[in-house]
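The instructor's notes for this session suggest beginning with a concrete chain rather than abstract definitions. Hand out the sequence below and ask the class to guess, before any prediction is shown, which regions might be ordered.
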Amino acid sequence: MKFLIGILVFFMLLSGCSKYTQETNTIQCSFSGSINNSYSKKDTIEKLMHNYMQQGIPGLVIAIYTPSSGYWGSAMGFAKIETQTPMELCHLQYLQSISKTYLATLILKLHEEGKINLDDPITKYLPEKFIKYIDNANTMSVRNLLNHTSGMPDYLESPSYITFVLQHPYHFFTSDEFLSYIENKKQQFTPGSKFEYSNTNYHVLALIADSLGGNHDDLIRQKILSPLGLYNSFYRNIKGNHNLVNSYMDRFSTGIVENVSQLQQESISCAKGDDGIIATPFDAINFLKSLMEGNILSDSSLAQMKTWVNDEHGNPIYGLGLYHVMFSGIEGYGHGGAGAGAASGLYYFPEKNIYVFLGTNIGTLVDGPIVEKVIELKLKVLDLILHD
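After discussion, reveal the predicted structure:
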């Protein structure tokens, strides 16, 4: 999403230097779940959060699960600055590209049902009207899309797309429109030969799911969200949800935040497969926990998700909808996400048996002092959580 955010920022810059606001309605809510307020690192983490909140971060949430301590979480700052609505654990956060893990899980569910073979060419499942946009589509397998080894260009990096977004910033894109921005663009490398992250991979996977099951939106709800009781998780149907946080951006990298909620909502609403999930912190935790514990997929499917491809340095980097990460020397699985006015991370660290969700309602794709603080805080919190 980084290139898209740059586009949106540029569009806002065209409007001049006056204060910019696109606020939407966010109501105050009250978290009613049970958390362990005796969690041993509670005070230290909250002190760290408080220190960083004083440096301009609008709102922040952290949620943790361990078998020994159970659930614990904390929220600070504001879900909406303009009305001084406090951030709470019941507020919905943007998961951004963490959504790719949900879609990958759906594709593997369809694989288990015998509806799709991961090593078949995508042309076996993708409707003909979409195949025409993709160079050498017959050489790309479903697995190549899942682990970003397809060589398919990223539609978000098309100059024509940039131009159109600048002229029509609130346009709702169809799949034909999205894919038209990679039409006539050459495959970037031989499938399977390297890793290169492309949002188009997951848009196409969503179209494949549509062709197999009718509507991948419904399939995500029917096969993942509803069976797991994730009733505070939503995919794409986000507008009008008053528990959803407002979104902010440090437009000029000056430490002054502005409300970009409408831009954030528009970009998420027309995303397909590569983005689109909003959820409470504990719903996000429970999704990843259920996935890692084998409550969604079979052991063999989960093992495939954790079969990593390597980066240019030979280090494991990505499986099927999961990043392989190292924080403070500890191995983890999960995904991060960032947008115009939000950022999040969702990780499982098997050595410590710890699940962590971190979310904020400020975009982290435009460099600036607040963004630097968000990144610093993430690293410090993870270091604190992962070490005794």
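Then share the key points. The radius of gyration is 20 Å. The domain at 2-386 is CATH 3.40.710.10 (Beta-lactamase).
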